[in-house]
Design a protein that fits this description.
single chain; eight-stranded mixed beta sheet; two-stranded antiparallel sheet; alpha/beta
Length: 376
C-alpha cells in the first residue's frame, strides 16, 4: 500500500500532524469500547474451547494515567462470528506481583470475555525476585520473563497457533480470517519460520544506510543508461539535434537527472516502493512485539531463546530477531498490518512514553479509506 508523501515517515516531506492522525485506529478503539460496554458482567470466566485453534494471549500491566486493555480486547473480539470465537482461547495475563492493583482485576466484563485470567503461579522466592525487578524498574529483564511465561501457558492449551498481543493495541476488523489465511499459506510453503508479525512500523523500513551500495549502483546504472540513450539519439538523429542542443544534454544529464533521482529518494520509500500487499517476508527492521503469531511447535524454541539471551536487557523482539538470524528462520508480515499501537503511556514507565507514542503503523490508518470505499 503506497502512502502519500505527507504520511510517509521516510519522506522528506513527511508531516507529523497528518502522519500520526488517528483515522482508522480511533474508529476501532470506539468500536472496541462499545463491544465491552455491551458485555454482561460475570463472576466467572468463559468455558475454554476443548480444541482451540488459536490461543490469544494478552499481557497487561497497570499504566500511569491511562489504560488500554478495554479497547484492545474489545477490538480483537468485535466482528468475530460465534464459530470463530469458539476457536479462540483468550488468555489475559495480569503481569504484576500484586494483580489486585490492576484497574481491570475485579471487573466483571474481563471475566465475561476471557477464557482464562493468569496471575503469577510461582513460589515465594521467585515472586520476591519479580517484585524486586518491579521495584528496581528493570523492565527489560521482567518483560522477557513475562513474555516467556505467557508463551508457555498459551502453548499448554494445545492450540495450533499461539498469538501474543500487547494490551495497548487495537485490531482491524476482520483480523482473524486474514491471519488464518496467511498462516495457511505459510504452512503450505513448508518454510522454516518463527512467526507472523501482526504489526510493524514503517519508520524503520526506509532507505536504510545498510543498502547504500545497492542504491548507488542502481543510480549509476540508470545514469549511464540515460546518458547513453540521449547521446545515441543525439548522434543518430538530425531531427533530435534540431530540438536538443549539447547544452541541453549537459543540463539534462548534470542537473535534471540527478534532481529527479534526489526527489525520488526524498519522496520516501513507502511512497515510491511500498511493500507488497498481503503476506510477505520481513527479515529485517521489523518492530516490535505488539503482536506476533507463533506456530505451536516453535514456541519451546522461542522460550529457550528468550530465557538464554546473552543480554537480558535486550527487548524481546530484538532477542528473537537475533536468534532467528542465527537459526536461519523466516519472519513474515502482513500489509496492511492487523494491529495498531495506540499506547502513549509505556508499560515501562513515564520515561519511555515519548518512544512509545512514536511506535506507529501508518498503513493501518489507511484502512479507513478502504473501509469507506467498500461501504459505498
Amino acid at each position: 500500500m503506497a502512502l502519500c508523501i505527507s504520511r510517509d515517515p521516510t519522506s522528506a516531506f513527511f508531516t507529523p500532524a497528518q502522519g500520526y492522525e488517528r483515522r482508522y485506529s480511533l474508529q476501532r478503539e470506539r468500536e472496541g469500547n462499545a463491544f465491552i460496554d455491551a458485555v454482561k458482567d460475570s463472576t466467572s470466566v468463559r468455558a475454554p474451547p476443548k480444541n482451540p485453534l488459536m490461543c490469544l494471549g494478552i499481557t497487561t500491566v497497570q499504566r500511569d494515567g491511562h489504560q488500554y486493555i478495554r479497547p484492545a480486547i474489545g477490538s480483537l473480539l468485535d466482528g468475530l462470528e460465534k464459530t470463530q470465537r469458539d476457536q479462540v482461547h483468550l488468555m489475559v495475563f495480569i503481569a504484576q506481583t500484586d494483580p489486585k492493583s490492576h484497574p481491570a482485576y475485579d471487573q466483571g466484563w474481563l471475566r465475561a470475555v476471557s477464557n482464562e485470567i493468569l496471575e503469577y503461579d510461582v513460589d515465594d522466592v521467585e515472586l520476591a525476585r519479580l517484585r524486586s525487578l518491579e521495584e528496581e524498574h528493570l523492565y527489560w529483564n521482567k518483560s522477557g520473563y513475562d513474555y516467556a511465561y505467557i508463551l508457555d501457558k498459551c502453548a499448554a492449551t494445545g492450540a495450533s497457533w499461539v498469538v501474543i498481543v500487547e494490551d495497548d493495541t487495537v485490531a482491524a476488523k476482520g483480523w482473524y480470517p486474514r491471519a488464518l489465511e496467511a498462516l495457511n499459506a505459510i504452512s503450505k510453503s513448508q518454510s522454516d519460520w518463527i512467526y507472523l508479525r501482526m504489526f510493524y512500523t514503517e519508520k524503520l523500513l526506509g532507505w536504510n544506510s545498510e543498502s547504500w551500495v545497492f542504491y548507488l549502483a542502481i543510480s549509476i546504472s540508470l545514469f549511464a543508461g540515460f546518458i547513453g540513450l540521449l547521446w545515441a539519439s543525439y548522434s543518430a538523429s538530425r531531427r533530435f539535434r534540431k530540438f536538443v542542443t549539447r547544452v541541453d544534454l549537459y543540463v539534462l544529464c548534470l542537473f535534471w537527472f540527478p534532481a529527479g533521482v534526489t526527489l525520488y529518494f526524498m519522496a520516501g520509500k513507502h511512497s515510491m516502493q511500498p511493500p507488497p500487499e498481503g503476506l510477505h517476508k520481513m527479515q529485517h527492521f521489523g518492530c516490535c512485539t505488539q503482536g506476533l503469531i507463533f506456530p505451536l511447535e516453535m514456541v519451546p524454541r522461542a522460550i529457550h531463546a528468550i530465557q538464554t539471551a546473552d543480554n537480558p536487557r535486550y527487548y524481546v523482539d530484538l532477542t528473537l530477531e537475533r536468534w532467528a538470524d542465527a537459526q536461519g528462520l523466516i519472519r513474515y508480515a502482513l500489509t496492511s498490518p492487523l494491529l495498531q499501537h495506540i499506547g502513549g503511556r509505556s508499560s515501562k514507565g513515564s520515561s519511555f512514553d515519548e518512544g512509545a507514542a512514536s511506535i506507529w503503523s501508518f498503513a493501518f490508518e489507511e484502512l479507513h479509506v478502504i473501509r469507506s470505499v467498500v461501504a459505498i
